[in-house]
Design goal:
Shape: elongated
Strand content: 5-15%
Helix content: 40-55%
Distance between the termini: 26 Å
Largest sheet: 3 strands, antiparallel
Radius of gyration: 23 Å
Number of helices: 19
């Protein structure tokens, strides 16, 4: 999953204070829990080129796994995509000239499955709004997968946008009921019912499952509740799940060296998380010392992947790193590396996040975050993960050079 580039953020998300005109896109809360998760994954996959590309693609099996379907459950995926195409997104905001703008659009303009790939698109008007960092609320998939209630996830999404300001601001109850998907029920027009069946259970799950703690506050006219807002604080018990907005990585000298070499922002941060600043700095020094390197960024990627360059880290050149007898374990790890290499950057980010959510122990997660797919502690689970994504990927892999996937 991709983070929003921090240098592109403006206004409230950058300063930590909300302006009155910060835009909001309201999506019907009638989405099921799995549909809401699917919507977030598709948006995160598309975000980098949201206003440039006419359509987007994602591996259907990966998509199923990321939102909690069986990886072959395409019928459920079809039903959920159909639901997104039938769901309306609505916005009401001030534009840059100060003029009020209201609009509606289907959440997806189309979606199709063909050859194991999900292709989909947004309407141009909605894509323009979703691409605005003041509107887009980034959802951490590690947190999202912990939710069991669609109402709770909808409440989390609508509160997390304001986590830097400490409060959502006042919502009329009519607006809140619409966000929760119960605006067509007369039963929930009575606040006592709304509070008991929707608000209290959703607040309890947000506080238990997410990286924020929220508390509802109400405003009355006479004895009737008319408005609601939610106070928001960080959840210290789940701080490890909080979003890394990249600020720490982007302040490091190593990050500047990677960017100057032509490495993308996303990949630079990924490498820094996976390998650590010290190791990357050593690899950069090694690459800088080579006089015959045509593509330093590509050479650095190979050095990080194959472990050459730097004191005590094995062979100094790729040819040496690939020579000699290879054990069965090394062959399987080589196959994993080949599988990872054929994935897109977005898919690689999603694969790592998805695998992390499957690890139960803190030690296993820490070892994977440090060593990535070469984590010895998680070797068995890593092979099972990739075998599930690519059935038969390790067939015939034994002593000898690892084979590239077909």
């Amino acid at each position: 999953m991709d983070e929003i580039p921090r240098e592109k953020l403006t206004g409230a998300l950058r300063r930590g204070s909300v302006k009155k005109h910060v835009a909001a896109i309201h999506v019907s809360g009638k989405l099921t829990l799995l549909q809401r998760k699917l919507s977030n994954v598709l948006l995160l996959n598309a975000y980098d080129t949201l206003t440039q590309a006419r359509s987007f693609q994602m591996d259907a099996r990966t998509l199923c796994l990321m939102v909690g379907y069986n990886s072959n459950d395409f019928e459920t995926l079809k039903a959920s995509l159909r639901g997104l195409a039938e769901t309306v997104a609505e916005w009401d905001m001030l534009d840059e000239a100060g003029q009020q703008e209201w609009g509606v659009s289907s959440l997806l303009s189309y979606a199709k499955l063909k050859g194991g790939v999900c292709e989909y698109a947004y309407s141009p008007a909605l894509a323009e709004k979703l691409a605005d960092p003041k509107v887009f609320a980034l959802i951490n998939l590690n947190i999202q997968r912990r939710f069991t209630s669609g109402h709770a996830l909808a409440l989390y999404e609508n509160c997390y946008r304001f986590h830097r300001t400490g409060s959502t601001g006042w919502w009329p109850l009519e607006t809140f009921r619409r966000l929760m998907g119960v605006d067509d029920s007369s039963y929930y027009e009575i606040y006592k019912h709304l509070n008991a069946k929707i608000i209290k259970p959703a607040v309890a799950e947000v506080n238990r499952a997410s990286n924020i703690v929220i508390a509802p506050e109400t405003r009355k006219r006479g004895r009737a509740v008319t408005d609601i807002r939610f106070a928001i604080k960080p959840n210290p018990q789940l701080a490890i799940l909080d979003l890394d907005d990249g600020a720490g990585h982007r302040r490091a000298p190593v990050y500047d060296r990677l960017r100057a070499m032509g490495v993308s922002d996303r990949l630079a941060r990924q490498w820094m998380t996976q390998h650590g600043e010290a190791q990357i700095a050593g690899k950069l020094d090694y690459v800088d010392a080579q006089s015959d390197v045509k593509s330093p960024a590509r050479y650095l990627a190979a050095a990080l992947r194959d472990g050459y360059g730097g004191a005590g880290e094995g062979p100094e050149r790729p040819s040496e790193a690939l020579s000699g007898p290879v054990s069965a374990r090394a062959a399987r790890l080589g196959r994993v590396q080949a599988l990872v290499a054929q994935r897109t950057p977005t898919q690689r980010d999603a694969d790592k996040r998805l695998f992390l959510t499957s690890l139960d122990s803190a030690a296993a997660r820490a070892d994977f975050e440090r060593h990535g797919w070469m984590s010895a502690l998680n070797a068995k689970a890593i092979l099972a993960f990739w075998e599930d994504l690519y059935p038969g990927a390790f067939d015939g892999v034994s002593d000898g050079a690892p084979q590239r996937p077909g």
